[in-house]
Design goal:
Blueprint: H1 2-13, H2 23-46, H3 54-57, H4 60-90, H5 95-101, H6 103-123, H7 127-144, H8 153-170, H9 173-181, H10 184-224, H11 230-236, H12 241-244, H13 247-281
Helix pairs in contact: 1-2, 1-10, 4-5, 4-7, 4-8, 4-9, 4-10, 4-13, 6-8, 7-8, 7-13, 9-10, 10-13
C-alpha cells in the first residue's frame, strides 16, 4: 500500500504541482520502486505463506486475467471520469446534464454485463467475451478521440454505447476465469488479486490522465490565449468558463479543453489495446460443472 500511495502521489503531482525533475517527484518514484521490489522479494521468499503465493501468479489464466482487468479498468475508468467533464467544458452543460448524457455508456455497460453473464452460463466459455471486450473497447476508445465541439448527438451517444458495451462483456470474465482454473483453497486469493488490479489500473491511470490533461490544457491556453493566465482557467473549473472569459476567448478555451480531453482519451486507447495481452493468452476452459459465482468487479 505505501508503494502505491507513493506512485499515485508522484503521478498526481508530476508536471502539475511540481516539475518532473523536482526532487520530491524523483524520490517518490524511487521509493515506490524500492517498496514494490521489496514486496516482490518477500513474496518469493515466503512461498505458500505469501500474501499472494507465486504458484497462483504463475498460472496462465490468473496472470492473463490480471493484465486484462488492470488494462480494462485503466481504460474504462478514464472515460467514466473524463467524459462528463467533456460535456461540461466543451458543450457547456451542467453537472446534472453531463451525467444524463453519460447514461448511454453506463446503461450499455450494465446491459453488456447481463448479456455476457447469460451467454457464458449457456455456452460455458468466458474467453470469447474477453476478446469481444478488447475489440469493442479499442474501437470505441479510438472513436472517442475524434470528438469535436460540434459533434452530433448520434455520434456521442453511439460511441459511448460501444465503449460501455465492451467492458460490460469483460468485467465478470477475469473473476470467472480464476474461479475456474484455481483450486477452491486459492480462489479467494485469486479473485482478490484480480479485483485489486482492476481498481489499481483505474486509480493509476486516472492520475496519469490528470497529468496529461492538465499539461496539455496549459500548453493550448499558453499558445492560443497568451493574455490569459492558464492557472485562472484551471482553477475556475469547467462550468465557470463563460463567467471569466469573453465570447471570443471562450471559443478558444473550449477548443483547448477539447484538445486536452481528447488527448487524454488516447491514454485510454492505449490501455484498451493492452487488454489484448490478457484476452489473447487466457486459457479457453468451460465453467460448466464448476462452482462459479458471477459478480461485477
Amino acid at each position: 500500500m505505501p508503494a502505491i500511495i507513493c506512485l499515485l502521489l508522484a503521478l498526481q503531482w508530476g508536471g502539475v504541482t511540481y516539475p518532473w525533475s523536482d526532487g520530491r517527484i524523483i524520490a517518490l518514484f524511487v521509493l515506490s520502486g524500492v517498496l514494490i521490489a521489496g514486496f516482490i522479494v518477500v513474496q518469493f521468499r515466503s512461498g505458500d505463506n505469501a500474501t499472494v503465493p507465486i504458484r497462483i501468479i504463475r498460472n496462465r489464466s490468473v496472470w492473463a486475467s490480471g493484465v486484462f482487468a488492470f488494462s480494462m479498468g485503466a481504460s474504462f475508468f478514464t472515460f467514466i471520469y473524463y467524459v462528463p467533464l467533456w460535456f461540461q467544458a466543451v458543450q457547456g452543460v451542467s453537472a446534472v446534464e453531463s451525467g444524463i448524457r453519460n447514461l448511454p455508456m453506463v446503461l450499455s455497460n450494465v446491459l453488456g454485463s447481463i448479456l455476457a453473464g447469460a451467454l457464458v452460463t449457456t455456452f460455458g466459455y468466458y474467453a470469447p467475451f474477453m476478446i469481444a471486450c478488447t475489440v469493442l473497447l479499442s474501437i470505441g476508445a479510438g472513436l472517442m478521440t475524434t470528438w469535436t465541439p460540434g459533434i452530433g448527438a448520434g455520434a456521442w451517444i453511439g460511441y459511448q454505447i460501444i465503449v460501455g458495451m465492451g467492458p460490460g462483456f469483460g468485467f465478470q470474465q477475469p473473476l470467472m476465469a480464476v474461479q475456474t482454473v484455481l483450486p477452491m483453497s486459492d480462489v479467494a486469493t485469486g479473485t482478490a488479486l484480480v479485483v485489486f488490479l482492476q481498481s489499481l489500473g483505474g486509480a493509476l491511470f486516472l492520475a496519469v490522465g490528470q497529468t496529461v490533461f492538465t499539461n496539455r490544457l496549459a500548453e493550448e491556453l499558453v499558445a492560443h490565449l497568451p493574455g490569459v493566465n492558464p492557472s485562472v482557467i484551471l482553477m475556475s473549473g469547467a462550468t465557470n468558463l463563460q463567467h471569466i472569459l469573453d465570447p471570443t476567448q471562450l471559443v478558444v478555451a473550449i477548443e483547448a479543453y477539447n484538445t486536452a480531453l481528447t488527448t487524454t482519451f488516447y491514454v485510454a486507447v492505449g490501455m484498451a489495446i493492452a487488454t489484448l495481452i490478457g484476452s489473447a493468452t487466457i486459457e479457453w476452459k468451460s465453467v460448466k460443472g464448476k462452482n462459479v459465482e458471477m459478480a461485477m468487479a
